[in-house]
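In the design runs reported in the main text, the only information available to the sequence generator was the tokenized backbone. The following block is the verbatim input for one such run; it is reproduced so that readers can re-run the procedure and compare outputs position by position.
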């Protein structure tokens, strides 16, 4: 499950977005009718206009707070479905974990995507005039999602490393999304000849490419991945295409030289040699064709491109540091 949290200024804008049909961005785009279903009210009730009025009335208890809107989106993995009562339980537990269980909030289920997802709109200002803190919001929502995955047997996702404890950060991790991306970028670099073809191929695989001082990619879930995070920085990608261009040029020069050399050999066969001399020369010519320097150059260059296509090693001393720390603890234990 993926949780997204934003802090905003306007209850009207947020509630109208969550409670109404999706707006058309293109003229030929179909409108998703009745996409929103209200599944829960807390400390508030009524139509969207009544909700906006109620939220704004409580907002006046702390007029100095410019951003009282807490908007949380909870998205399940494609194919996963939970019944309404379980979704309500999830929302209630989210309110408790994020600290707004006694405040105004509503939960809305949307039906406009293939994956099941919810929107929770909460008032950060309570009836006691206290404000719900937004400190460590991203860490808290990530921790909450991992808890819900275990409780409702949902697909488990790794927390971002910065949200882990110091001990947990010491363990090496396998990120399936990054591994898949690394494989896609590696295969694409093998197939294409220049950067334009590379970008076009990556887009056909469902990635959005963002090139600036470095290079980043957005996958079909809108998750951003930097090329340098998987061992393929922009500098490395450009180096690969420079090398490919040099390889093609060197191969062409070698092919031209070899063709001239073989043509000279063939012409020499027409000279008045004895039959034995002609057979020796012909045998030598066939051997040269089979052991052409161009073929050897091709092999050497292919080996070189294979080596450079290996992703850069991302240095990680995690496991070693963890083992060192455990040995130190063990030694200290013996001395006590």
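Verbatim output:
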């Amino acid at each position: 499950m993926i949780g997204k949290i934003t802090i905003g200024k306007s209850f009207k804008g947020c509630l109208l977005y969550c409670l109404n049909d999706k707006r058309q961005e293109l003229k030929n785009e179909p409108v998703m009718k009745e996409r929103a279903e209200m599944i829960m009210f807390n400390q508030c009730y009524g139509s969207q206009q009544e909700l906006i009025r109620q939220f704004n009335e409580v907002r006046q208890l702390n007029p100095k707070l410019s951003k009282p809107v807490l908007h949380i989106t909870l998205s399940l993995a494609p194919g996963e479905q939970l019944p309404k009562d379980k979704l309500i339980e999830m929302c209630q537990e989210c309110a408790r974990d994020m600290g707004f269980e006694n405040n105004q909030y509503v939960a809305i289920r949307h039906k406009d995507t293939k994956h099941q997802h919810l929107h929770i709109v909460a008032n950060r200002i309570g009836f006691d005039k206290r404000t719900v803190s937004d400190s460590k919001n991203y860490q808290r929502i990530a921790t909450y999602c991992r808890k819900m995955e275990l409780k409702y047997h949902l697909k488990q996702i790794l927390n971002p490393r910065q949200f882990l404890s110091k001990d947990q950060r010491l363990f090496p991790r396998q990120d399936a999304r990054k591994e898949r991306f690394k494989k896609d970028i590696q295969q694409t670099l093998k197939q294409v000849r220049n950067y334009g073809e590379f970008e076009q191929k990556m887009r056909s695989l469902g990635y959005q490419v963002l090139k600036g001082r470095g290079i980043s990619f957005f996958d079909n879930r809108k998750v951003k991945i930097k090329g340098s995070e998987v061992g393929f920085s922009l500098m490395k990608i450009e180096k690969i295409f420079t090398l490919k261009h040099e390889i093609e040029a060197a191969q062409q020069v070698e092919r031209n030289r070899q063709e001239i050399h073989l043509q000279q050999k063939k012409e020499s066969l027409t000279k008045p040699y004895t039959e034995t001399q002609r057979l020796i020369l012909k045998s030598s010519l066939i051997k040269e064709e089979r052991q052409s320097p161009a073929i050897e150059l091709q092999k050497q260059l292919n080996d070189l491109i294979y080596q450079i296509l290996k992703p850069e090693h991302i240095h990680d001393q995690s496991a070693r540091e963890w083992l060192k720390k455990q040995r130190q603890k063990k030694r200290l234990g013996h001395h006590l």
